[in-house]
């Protein structure tokens, strides 16, 4: 009887996997995917990121690598659109100080600063809601809102409204852009204006392209003073779709390539990440 049960379980598992794989073939190629998940479709992503943070020894500044894992999942919900949640796991003190998990956010670079994400082992949970307003052959426009919940000690509440835009050049490329305005509600409110421009090309299951971003930051520095800065970010990403429903991804990214601060250099702004995403149609 036990042998029959085992054989039955194996047969059922193989049958379920076969049916799941067949249904997964319905996932569209990278260039053709919609701005938001269709109703009752789901996705999950795990990315391992590596970043740096400054350390001082004998009055000399050096930089130490740290790492973390970004973990997120989303589902398409009728009427509302796409609902998702994101958190991160930082490995040791180096992972906490470097916030290396931000480089594990593969291709989705929208985030808050450390005051809203926290500096604990687990990042503050982030919840987002995204809907599509217009989707025609050439362009798709949506609305998005994100919340970062201050679960970590000394962290703050974050809110980021946004307008994601996807421009399609049929059979050639797609451009992921838009405008996002993350707020962090500290004693004085901090905010940024973020405009990404990610250009993607595809050859069979392989997709690749440059990751560019412009960000304006407003930082209060005192009761009556503030500091503004504009940064340009630059990187590249590559991915490969396996079995038509698993995306293997990798990226290299500079947090900034302009106005490098005194005592710093371009290499210290570098981070990279790799991971995988699963799409369930």
From TrEMBL:
Keywords: Signal. Residues 1-26 form the signal peptide. This is Outer membrane protein beta-barrel domain-containing protein. It comes from Pendulispora rubella. The lineage of its organism: Bacteria, Pseudomonadati, Myxococcota, Myxococcia, Myxococcales.
């Amino acid at each position: 009887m036990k042998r029959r049960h085992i054989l039955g379980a194996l047969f059922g598992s193989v049958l379920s996997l076969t049916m799941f794989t067949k249904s997964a073939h319905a996932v569209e190629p990278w260039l053709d995917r919609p701005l938001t998940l269709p109703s009752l479709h789901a996705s999950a992503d795990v990315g391992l990121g590596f970043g740096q943070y400054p350390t001082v020894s004998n009055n000399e500044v050096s930089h130490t690598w740290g790492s973390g894992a970004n973990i997120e999942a989303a589902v398409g919900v009728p009427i509302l659109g796409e609902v998702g949640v994101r958190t991160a796991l930082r490995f040791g003190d180096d992972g906490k100080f470097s916030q290396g998990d931000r480089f594990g956010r593969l291709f989705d670079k929208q985030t808050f600063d450390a005051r809203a994400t926290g500096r604990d082992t687990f990042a503050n949970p982030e919840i987002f809601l995204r809907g599509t307003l217009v989707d025609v052959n050439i362009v798709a426009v949506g609305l998005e809102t994100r919340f970062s919940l201050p679960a970590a000690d000394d962290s703050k509440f974050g809110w980021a409204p946004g307008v994601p835009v996807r421009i399609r050049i049929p059979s050639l490329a797609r451009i992921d852009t838009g405008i996002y305005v993350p707020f962090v509600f500290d004693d004085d409110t901090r905010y940024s204006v973020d405009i990404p421009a990610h250009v993607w090309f595809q050859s069979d299951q392989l997709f690749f392209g440059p990751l560019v971003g412009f960000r304006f930051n407003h930082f209060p520095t005192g009761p009556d003073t503030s500091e503004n800065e504009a940064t340009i970010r630059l990187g590249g990403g590559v991915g490969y779709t396996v079995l038509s429903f698993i995306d293997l991804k990798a990226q290299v990214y500079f947090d900034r390539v302009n106005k490098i601060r005194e005592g710093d250099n371009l290499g210290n702004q570098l981070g990279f990440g790799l991971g995988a995403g699963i799409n369930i149609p």
